Amino acid sequence: MMSTMLMSRKSKAIAAWCGVLFLVLCIHFYISYNGIEIFSGARELYGTRYRDPAPYDRDTQIKTIKRPPLPPLNPGHIRKQLYTPPPKEEKKQRFPQTLVIGTGKCGTRALLDYLGMHPYVACATREVHFFDKDENFKRGLNWYKAQMPRSYSNQMTIEKSPSYVEHPRTPLVARKINKDMRILWVVKDPVVRLMSVMALHYSNLGEKYREPFLQRVNGTITIKKDYYPLWRGEYVLHLRRWLKYFPLAQIHVLDGTDLVKDPVTEIQEVESFLELPPLLGPQNFYYNVSKGFYCMVPFSATSPQCLGSSKGRKHPVLNATVKTLLYDFFRPYNEQFFKLLGKRFNWEPKD
Ligand SMILES: Nc1ncnc2c1ncn2[C@@H]1O[C@H](COP(=O)(O)OS(=O)(=O)O)[C@@H](OP(=O)(O)O)[C@H]1O
């Protein structure tokens, strides 16, 4: 009798353990399966399994985007206290809901740091390069999330890596992570951008300035079309690719030169695009005459904070012929870009 009772207790314990093991295995397979689903993005990109979303139709796509609403705020509330975390909530790391995708040397750091002053925003301070660097991409989504700042659920997590815009994997996988992702893209007159690259290049190498974007063909100087920094400035090519995955209504493009000249207007437009409470204003910017740039005045700071000395380098001065060659080269790309974007920037040579 005793031994039968012991046996039945033992088999119940074994059954319970089997149940727990089964549950753990189910959870494990569920997580792995979803991981594989997301990571198959890389394979799908080069294989045949991935099908592009429905063709982009600008008129029907421009509509309000769904996003979890921010808690209601009234002006009195804003004046008294800029930010209130949701009650009984712990901060945690979250995937970004907004990406600053590029373009390098157009003002991506300024945009991110300006946004970082917003109390409803949590920015990853360093560039994560998850989508564009194979070694990071292989580390997986959990690694990506672990690079994000801790935030409350009513804050928006933002990450910037300036070469996301050109890497074909970025829009594809970003859409899989969150199809409502907001995209911020700073561009600049591509000739000015090229000069910024040249300034960086020569300050790093300590070399005498050359013009690697030019070549001599049969005694004639022409543009070396396959020079990589030129391709980065052919924005329309990149926009076309992004529009296969995200509607234009989810992509906000701003001119980095406007961001330098009038950060208040630009950042307020970004606030409105991201549907953030309108909190940033002239009180958050201070013009530093010796630097020739605006510096930030975060709500909690007592003195302005400027970007580092790697920003605002002196650009090489182009001679008139090379300038004309470059502007003629970029003009057709710029025109197609403005048409697709439905917005123009003043990117003609200035004296
Ligand atoms: N407030 C403020 N302070 C300093 N610099 C400013 C600011 N706003 C925009 N910029 C411009 O940002 C340019 C560098 O762009 P990025 O931050 O995108 O460069 S990077 O790709 O991350 O290296 C940098 O380009 P260069 O002038 O060629 O250095 C600046 O023109």
Features:
glycoprotein; alpha/beta; five-stranded parallel beta sheet; 351 residues; Rossmann fold; binds 3'-phosphate-adenosine-5'-phosphate sulfate; two-stranded antiparallel sheet; 43% helix
Judged by helices, strands and strand pairing, the structural class is alpha/beta
- Could you give a short account of the major beta sheet? 5 strands, parallel
The helix/strand order is HHHEEHEHHEEHEHEEHHEHHEEH
Number of strands: 11
Oligomer: single chain
Strand fraction: 5-15%
Short description:
With 351 residues, this protein is α/β, with parallel strands linked by helices. It is built from 13 helices and 11 strands. It has helices at residues 2-46, 58-61, 75-80, 108-115, 134-137, 141-146, 169-177, 190-205, 228-232, 235-242, 256-261, 263-273, 320-341, and strands spanning 92-93, 98-102, 121-123, 150-151, 156-160, 182-187, 214-217, 220-223, 251-255, 285-288, 293-296.
